[in-house]
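help with these tokens:
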Amino acid sequence: MTIERRQASVARGVATAHPIEVVRAEGARVWDANGKEYLDFIGGIGVVNVGHNHPRVVRAMRLQLERFTHVCFQVATYAPYVELAERLDALVSGARSQPLPSSRASSSQPLSSSRGAFSQPLPSPSSSRAAYKTLLLTTGAEAVENAVKIARAYTNRPAVIAFDGGFHGRTLLGMTLTATGSLYRQNFGPFAPEVYHAPFPHALHGVSTEAALRALEHLFATRVPRDRVAAFLVEPQLGEGGFVPAPPEFLKELRRLATAYGIVLVLDEIQTGFGRTGRMFAFQHFGIEPDLMTLAKSLGGGLPLSAVVGKAEIMDAPAPGGLGGTYSGNPLACAAALAVLDVFEEEGLLERSQALGAQLHAGLTGLQSRFPRVAEVRGLGCMLAIELSSEGESAVELTQRILDEARARGLLLLRCGPHKNAIRFLPPLNAMRDDIDRALAILEGAFQASLSA
């Protein structure tokens, strides 16, 4: 079997969460080599927000495949890149001007399932060309590295402040910026210079917004003065770090400090973007406006594609030739991304994300009431997690046992958090309500079996 062959041919450092071989995928389901069906609530780690093999995305890729697959945008311009840049510029501009949800953007509640601001058609490209610009790339890590380059070019400053729990990639700079777990760093140093970390608020673990902001001020006073800082880099809701939403007052204060001291505010929306939190972008929950935003994962509908979208004045800081990459903005991936945006509009996926998130949150809260080992249910929209507490047994071991039991019953889930004792839920945004109900039933059975083992 492929899994046995893998041991002899694939580097040991590439870990795989589940010992199965996927041979087919569609919508919210995958099938293994033995024909067993699974509900996939991992989605390639947040990549297939529109589901596996969406017909519109597949059709768009097929059409582009018959035209050309690669010329390199630094060699010659092609329409899919430019059209996608226009649409991303318009989306960010439109998202910036949308009203905030009235009451449910807290760190522990999903958004309401009622129709919101995005029930209207998405903005047209002509609405924002003067305000925002886009750089297309290949991976999330590449987007983060380029956002740092752009911020440094714009400010002529070297330092970057990232936050505990953040995950920003596996490249040298990405690893340096990441503060999710020592596993990602191992013995790969020395790391990139002029990167500093500050606490990210999480009340469950005793870090209040006030304490986090005091620590940031202490960092300014003792390690790096404000006028040396090019950028703040922060996830509005931690991804790999545990699906912890930032308190609104924390992000608002970062925005204030960035404006006051000429610091570029970079929001890493690689996992939170494209409807995952119930809004097109997570920053819409918080009443702030980023200077730069990194995007990837669900953008390409399964193909490698990422972007930096930001204010035109900042994006234009690097001189011609300073940005790019051989495969950046590959035309096949751009065609897929344009189809992904069409699916969002035509299928009302933002409203579906809100409704599915509310259904899932209610089910997880019910699970918490029946199983005291669930210490917290958290997240925004359809980006939710439960964290398990340790009570006489390692929460890490219990978490893994639950995941293994859920897989045996036909549900694929993944861990997250610095201690890997949280379970994350990333169903496709066009999953059915019955899929959520079935997943919750499987999860309850996995809890019962794992706690009695």
